[in-house]
Amino acid sequence: RALRGRGADLAGRRLVISAGGTREAIDPVRFIGNRSSGLQGYALARTAVARGAEVTLVAANVSLPDPAGATVVRVESALELREAVLAALENADAVVMAAAVADFRPVAPHDSKIKKTSAGPEPVHLVENPDILAELGERRREGLKPYPRVIVGFAAETDDVLANGQAKLARKGCDLLVVNQVGAGLAFGTPDNAAVVLGADGERAEVPRGPKEDLADVVWDLVAERLA
Ligand code: CTP
Ligand code: CA
């Protein structure tokens, strides 16, 4: 990394990264989940440590080894992820929400395992989860501490990738939004990614298909600029 001129440009910076995908319990043995592997979030953690940052990684259901030098907090649900991110935010300079957070959770998980009956399946009633990324932007707008100076979100889109990304950036009140196209062998569970990073300040950085570390380093370049 030093060869690429990045050196220890994040030394002394405290960064919070969320990774993986949340699981929302239906009953003690079942959950609603998603396909996020945590690879991109872990690549963000490794590259940030390599550039000298102090990293807290909030990992939701990731089966990857802890990145050396990062503090790892393991969570399962969106509500747990929110608590862990808010707790880690004390004195943090920046947050990157790479985790896939479930938009909805079962209203009340069953205490015991749901059994098959002749009456057929019962519907699972859902309620909306808090939008953690949007909440961080709101905290900052209202000056409600702790909030980070730089807020980065991720968006996985299938259609109208750029238009959806621009709208989401505005709606979430974040500084940077990493928009990647899902499908075509990219994103979920693969070592490669391709993305465009959109900024509230008009930034538009295209990152061609390559290792998730390359995208991570571009994200940190843009974060470092904004923290300077
Ligand atoms: N996010 C979050 N809390 C949620 C949902 C999403 O913090 N309850 C964050 C994700 O970590 C990601 C960003 O918001 O950084 C965008 O997530 P995405 O699912 O693409 O956005 P949504 O607003 O949920 O829109 P959509 O209807 O497309 O799912
Ligand atoms: Ca969503």
TrEMBL record:
Positions annotated to bind CTP: D103, K113, P130, D131, I132, L133, F154, K168, K172
Pathway info: Cofactor biosynthesis; coenzyme A biosynthesis; CoA from (R)-pantothenate: step 2/5; Cofactor biosynthesis; coenzyme A biosynthesis; CoA from (R)-pantothenate: step 3/5
Domain DNA/pantothenate metabolism flavoprotein C-terminal, first and last residues per copy: 10-225
Keywords assigned: Decarboxylase, Flavoprotein, FMN, Ligase, Lyase, Magnesium, Metal-binding, Multifunctional enzyme
Any single Gene Ontology cellular-component annotation: phosphopantothenoylcysteine decarboxylase complex
Keyword Metal-binding: yes
Cofactor note: Binds 1 FMN per subunit.
Keyword Hydrolase: no
Function field: Catalyzes two steps in the biosynthesis of coenzyme A. In the first step cysteine is conjugated to 4'-phosphopantothenate to form 4-phosphopantothenoylcysteine, in the latter compound is decarboxylated to form 4'-phosphopantotheine.
The family this protein is said to belong to: In the N-terminal section; belongs to the HFCD (homo-oligomeric flavin containing Cys decarboxylase) superfamily.
Record protein name field: Coenzyme A biosynthesis bifunctional protein CoaBC
Organism of derivation: Streptosporangium sandarakinum
